[in-house]
Amino acid sequence: MQYINNNKLTVSNRMAEILKHVINAEPRIPSIIDYAKSIKDSRSRNILLLRLSGKTLQEIGNFYSITRERVRQICSKFLRSARRKFKHFSEDKYLCVVSKYQISCKDFTASFNEPVSTFVYCKAATRKNARKMPLESLLEDDNIPVSMRKQVARAVFIH
Predict the structure, then answer these.
(1) Which of 28, 37, 90, 127 registers the highest number of CB atoms within 10 A of its CB?
(2) Mean pLDDT per 10-residue run, the chain (159 residues)?
(3) What does the radius of gyration of the chain's CA atoms come to, in whole angstroms?
(4) Cβ of 137: how many Cβ atoms within 10 Å?
(5) Between the CA atoms of 133, 134, 135 and 140, what dihedral angle is there, to the nearest 10 degrees?
(6) Is the Cα dihedral 57, 63, 64, 67 positive or negative?
(7) How far apart are the C-alpha atoms of 75 and 32, rounded to whole Å?
(8) 111 CB contacts (<8 Å, ≥6 apart)?
């Protein structure tokens, strides 16, 4: 009987450790893809997912027989809604790079090993007409974390 009690005690200790970890764990920050997949209207969900996958407004518009402007409006509507609902997405850590520097999708995905959807989201979430600096100046920017600067340097400048 002692063996059974010890076994129960061990199981209880493990459960307590797991619960403590779950309770103290940081909540998972959703990705923009998580949000897009949660959209109830299948047409809007698919339009946003196609846009995040890198499809152009024209390609999506042709597929759904709507204008590029309508595609842009649908995507903008749901991205604004996403911001109100979640405030932050896991992709937000790259906003500083995309908003300040001239970085292509190819360089971005190579640098950070992120999907195209992360780059597309960051481009959509930043000001379109903002003056952007050359990517080389990112390497000297103390406001950008060192780990990000190293990733860009390895992927873009050291081939």
Answers:
(1) 90
(2) 48 58 63 90 94 94 96 91 82 91 92 93 83 90 91 79
(3) 22
(4) 13
(5) -70
(6) positive
(7) 12
(8) 103, 148, 151, 152, 154, 155, 156
Supply 69's token pair: 């402007």
How far is the C-alpha of 68 from the C-alpha of 59, rounded, in Å? 8
What is this structure's pTM? 0.74
**Two structure tokens written together for 109:** 């995905």
* Token couple for 77: 């509507």
From the list 95, 94, 102, 97, the residue with the least C-alpha distance to 132 is 102
Widest distance between CA atoms in the chain: 74
How many CB atoms neighbour CB 75 within 10 A? Answer: 21
Q: Find the length of the chain.
A: 159
Instruction: State the Cα–Cα distance between residues 119 and 98, nearest whole angstrom.
Output: 8
Dihedral of CA atoms 127, 128, 133, 138 in degrees, nearest 10, equals 50
